[in-house]
Write a structure and sequence with these properties.
Number of helices: 25
Strand order of the largest sheet: 2-3-1-4-5-6
CATH class of one domain: Alpha Beta
Helix content: 40-55%
Distance between the termini: 37 Å
Structural class: alpha/beta
Strand content: 5-15%
CATH architecture of one domain: 3-Layer(aba) Sandwich
Length: 592
């Protein structure tokens, strides 16, 4: 079986790796993966003959420029790629890539490949390279031309069929010999054994960024067990009392929205006096017309406290399970339900009474030994509750008992959320601080932007934060200050992805300050981001060494980077020795 070596070259980020991976796997890669040197194997039939395609991907990083020609040895064809949305990559075909190929491997055929042609239909991208420009360049270079889209898999088959045909048409065995003799401008004697170039060591994989498990459920479990800032009291049979929070009940349940006469349309109007028809009337709530509720007693200020007398027949133990569900997404039922089936049936009865369909499903799953579905139900329920909690109460002055003053802006919040979700805030509003003494607390915050603080608030309310749309580093710093480790992790992951995408440009000239990011991450306890930055700097040592901020690396940081630099000094020394040997052999041959 004949081997054909295809070498894919071109500027970084033009789609070389995606071209090869999509062709060989028939699936577009979902994640951007920076290439060092990689190769893929594929087997095809050409005119009844089986041929093995060695598909070589090449590095895009600056340090690859020196070692890249070593991979040219034995190439049967070059797939010279550019991206239609990157004019610079198109211009570099003539300015950079063709001169290099003609110098090292003048007899190896070339195929010009336009990548990402699906972007021509995007109205957001201007100045794309046209098909006519691509064909004109191919005409000047006297090479075949193909257009491809890895995303839509358009033109891939035609591209590689053309490359196979072009490579097999040329007498590549003869060309390989010439290429070997001409490589680096030297020639070898036929009697001399060819010295193989040193093997480049692997750069290694970047550290994974792990995301801490959500504490949303456990935080609200603690709030239910220790109901600080409670503003609702349920009275059950036997004068049993349970304290709760209007905010949680309304966010988790439409039933309690109607009880407390809260609606989102009401929120938009900011008029508590306007009650929608769907809410229960005062007459309904005080006369026993609402199933399950005997009466509701409100103090003069409706925001202060509400007492709800539940009907006889609602057992305290069962209603505790209902509250657990509303606060955490799951009733705290034991795994082995044998012997408590009656209690589960009673919880299910209350769920039906109050319109909690998901709680009914959870109870039914427990009775049918299908409780393995319940965690997913609870996760979804919590996600929806958090979203409603943010939409209904965050920055809503009608229901706020905390006002933050930041950059001349007021941000309205709720002590129950802040205390449940953040230990720093819990101490501020639940202890001996001045802020904890008044009904509505006002706090002046300095050295923080309203945008970042609002993102932190969104996370506390909903367990999600708008990291992609905001200052991810600023949010990470604020998250560390307020002890939100999971939010720090989310920022770390997003930042690493963004930096990784930035390597499509030259690292030496990139606007992304990775070294500054490293120092910030170490200052604010973002350990995973720190480790990732150290790996990234080490893996791109030659490029970072040329940056002005490289001198800021001191102590253990510079020690780590020097120890783990890529390519390592030992490999670069081997390359020098190899080049010297080739030079000597070339001189001898020329003398001969």
């Amino acid at each position: 079986m004949e081997n054909l070596k295809f070498l894919v070259v071109g500027d970084g980020g033009v789609g070389k790796s995606s071209l090869l991976m999509t062709y060989t796997t028939h699936a577009f890669p979902s994640e951007h993966t920076p290439t060092v040197f990689d190769n893929y194997i594929d087997t095809v039939m050409v005119d009844g003959d089986r041929k093995c395609l060695e598909l070589w991907d090449t590095a895009k990083r600056e340090e690859g420029d020196r070692e890249r020609p070593l991979s040219y040895l034995g190439a049967d064809i070059f797939l010279l790629c550019y991206s239609i949305e990157n004019k610079c990559s198109f211009e570099n075909i003539e300015d950079k890539w063709i001169p290099g190929i003609e110098h090292f491997c003048p007899d190896v055929p070339v195929l010009l490949v336009a990548c990402k042609t699906d972007l021509r239909s995007s109205s957001k991208i201007k100045g794309v390279v046209s098909s006519e420009e691509g064909r004109a360049l191919a005409g000047r270079l006297r090479v075949p031309f193909c257009e491809t889209s890895s995303l839509t898999q358009t033109g891939l088959r035609e591209c590689f069929d053309t490359a196979i045909k072009r490579a097999t048409e040329c007498s590549h065995c003869k060309k390989k010999a010439k290429s070997h003799r001409r490589f680096s401008g030297y020639s070898w004697s036929k009697k001399k054994r060819v010295h193989l170039p040193p093997v480049m060591p692997s750069v290694g994989k970047a550290p994974w960024v792990e995301i801490m498990t959500s504490t949303f459920s456990s935080d609200w479990t603690k709030a239910l067990q220790n109901p600080v800032h409670s503003d609702v009291t349920f009275i059950l049979e036997g004068n049993h009392k349970l304290d709760a929070h209007r905010l949680v009940l309304c966010a988790a349940s439409k039933f309690f929205q109607k009880v407390f006469r809260f609606s989102q349309s009401e929120q938009k109007r900011n008029k508590l006096s306007e009650i929608e028809d769907e809410s229960f009337s005062t007459q309904d709530l005080t006369s026993g017309a609402v199933e399950g509720i005997a009466t509701v007693i409100e103090e003069n200020d409706v925001k202060t406290h509400t007492t709800i007398q539940l009907c006889d027949g609602i057992r305290p133990k069962s209603f505790v399970r209902v509250l657990q569900f509303l606060y955490t997404g799951l009733p705290n039922l034991p795994k082995d339900v044998m012997g408590i089936e009656d209690e589960i049936h009673d919880v299910s009865r209350l769920a039906k009474m109050f319109g909690f369909g998901q709680l009914e499903t959870i109870c039914d799953n427990c009775l049918k030994e299908m409780d393995f579905f319940n965690p997913s139900i609870g996760t979804f329920f919590n996600d929806e509750t958090g979203k409603r909690m943010k939409d209904m109460f965050l920055n809503n002055p009608e229901y706020a008992d905390v006002i933050f003053h930041i950059e001349g802006t007021k941000i309205y919040a709720n002590k129950v959320v802040l205390g449940a979700r953040c230990e720093v805030m819990s101490a501020m509003f639940g202890g001996s601080f001045v802020e904890s003494q008044s009904t509505v607390s006002e706090v002046q915050l300095m050295e923080v932007t309203s945008e970042c603080f609002m993102a932190l608030m969104e996370y506390l309310y909903s367990d999600h934060a708008p990291i992609e749309d905001g200052d991810s580093v600023g949010i990470m710093v604020l998250a560390d200050e307020y002890g939100q480790k999971r939010l720090v992790n989310l920022c770390e992951l997003y930042i690493t992805k963004e930096v990784d995408r930035s390597v499509t440009k030259q690292i030496e000239k990139s606007e992304v300050d990775v070294i500054g990011l490293l120092l910030t991450s170490q200052l604010y306890n973002a350990e995973q981001l720190s480790n990732w930055c150290l790996h990234f700097i080490s893996s791109n040592y030659i490029a970072f060494e040329k940056r002005q901020e490289f001198s800021l690396l001191t102590g253990s940081n510079i020690e780590h980077v020097e120890e783990h630099r890529w390519p390592p000094l030992s490999y670069l020394e081997e390359v020098k020795q190899y080049e010297k040997e080739m030079e000597k052999m070339g001189e001898k041959c020329s003398v001969m």
